[in-house]
Amino acid sequence: MRLSISQITTVTQSFADDLDAYREAGADGVGIWEMKLQEDSLERFRASGLAAATAIPTVPSILPLPLMEGPADPADRVEAICAGIRRLAPFEPPCVLFLTGPGDDRETILEGIRAIADEGLAQGVPVVLEPIQREFAGFWTIVSSLDEAAVLVDDAGADCGLQYDSWHLWREPLEQVEQHRSRIRGVHLADWREPTRNTNDRVLPGDGAVDFGPILDALRWDGLYDLEIFSDPELPGSLWAGDPRELAARGIESLRRTASSASA
Question: 72, exposed or middle or buried, with CB in 10 Å at 0-12, 13-18, 19+?
Fold first, then answer.
């Protein structure tokens, strides 16, 4: 099992500090966030020996997001995503992730998926659509399962894969994982706090309600398992409120325990 940490997990650190912390923790890779890139990031990344996991552009969705700043015009947002793909391509990630955003403008979403997929093909970087779990979907998306995401991509007629995220999809039928396994190009892992207090309230694998064994068995994933933690620092017990280097070390250890328990 190859393990990585998505850079949002240690949101307050710089790109360089992330690389140092992840290597020290024993990670194999890093999920790169465009918003953290600096002029020397590519050089530092190549020198780190870490592999790239799923990458995320600074503007992550086709339609505007209520909880994030960014352009209001979907065309401007799609161009920003495409620019992000071009900026992230030299890091050779297995995929670049995007969301639909919430709303009812399906045709605009379909056009956006086509344009994003075309840019991915031009840059040699696969792109993936991520479904967002149903309770908070109204902030982020129109698709909340692999089935729904696959239908949307098929309707677009685009060369676009899917992202699996345990925090979003742990309650969805595992049969969907088996059905769409060949389309999954990136995997995020995090656990579900019970009760979950808002859209940014994840916990480390093994500390929440998710039964990871059947999920990992269904995925049969041979890429990087990428730890992705969002955590509201204003809430008690927030993972973002502590030392990010310690969180990186705890996160890799929790991924190892999760993998070990799943294979037992």
Answer: exposed
- 76's tokens: 């401007």
Asked if 98 and 117 count as a contact pair (C-beta separation under 8 A), the reply is: no
Task: Kindly report whether the global pTM for this prediction surpasses the value 0.85.
Answer: yes
**Per-residue pLDDT tens over the stretch 17-54:** 999 999 999 999 999 999 999 999 999 999 999 999 99
Q: Residue written as tokens 């909880």?
A: 67
- Measured at the CA of 199, the angle between CA 2 and CA 260, to 5 degrees, comes to 25
Which residue has 């020290």 as its token pair?
Answer: 24
Q: Where are the beta strands (DSSP E) in the chain?
A: 2-6, 29-31, 51-52, 96-98, 127-129, 161-165, 184-189, 191-192, 202-203, 224-227
- What are 116-174's pLDDT values in tens digits? 999 999 999 999 999 999 999 999 999 999 999 999 999 999 999 999 999 999 999 99
Q: Bridge-partner residues for 59, per DSSP?
A: none
Which of 90, 109, 104 has the alpha carbon at shortest distance from 158?
109
